[in-house]
Design a protein that fits this description.
Radius of gyration: 23 Å
Largest sheet: none
InterPro entries: SAM_Ribosomal_mS41 (IPR019083)
Helix content: 40-55%
Pfam families: SAM_Ribosomal_mS41
Number of strands: 0
Protein name: Small ribosomal subunit protein mS41 SAM domain-containing protein
CATH topology of one domain: DNA polymerase, domain 1
Structural class: mainly alpha
Low-confidence stretches: none
Organism: Carpinus fangiana
Distance between the termini: 57 Å
Mean pLDDT: 79
């Protein structure tokens, strides 16, 4: 019984004290964002890399809007004469972007 009171009392004290002055923000988010804020077709394709960025002009002229690129099907990309491997990359990253699992970085990562 005594251990239970000590446990719950110390837990309540620890939860009431916030380590940072602003609730909900961690010290790890003090740096500026590493991701591109406004994403368009050129930023999206540069973020994918692997030669896909060579199709920026073609996709901007034919598709036009980034939101349309996110829902474009493989046949539309095939009609634009985009090679199979690059079509797969565009579609895979568009799917990840729609789910919120991937965003293009502001600067490419140097390997």
């Amino acid at each position: 019984m005594a251990w239970r009171q000590i446990f719950f009392n110390t837990r309540a004290i620890l939860m009431s004290q916030q380590p940072h002055p602003t609730p909900g923000f961690s010290r790890f988010f003090s740096k500026s964002s590493l991701y591109v804020e406004k994403v368009g077709i050129p930023e999206f394709l540069k973020g994918i890399g692997k030669g896909v960025e060579s199709h920026v002009a073609k996709l901007e002229s034919e598709i036009g809007d980034f939101q349309k690129l996110l829902v474009t099907r493989t046949w539309r990309l095939k009609d634009l004469k985009i090679p199979c491997q690059q079509r797969k990359l565009i579609l895979r990253y568009a799917y990840k972007y729609r789910l919120g699992l991937w965003r293009p970085r502001a600067e490419p990562v140097k390997s």
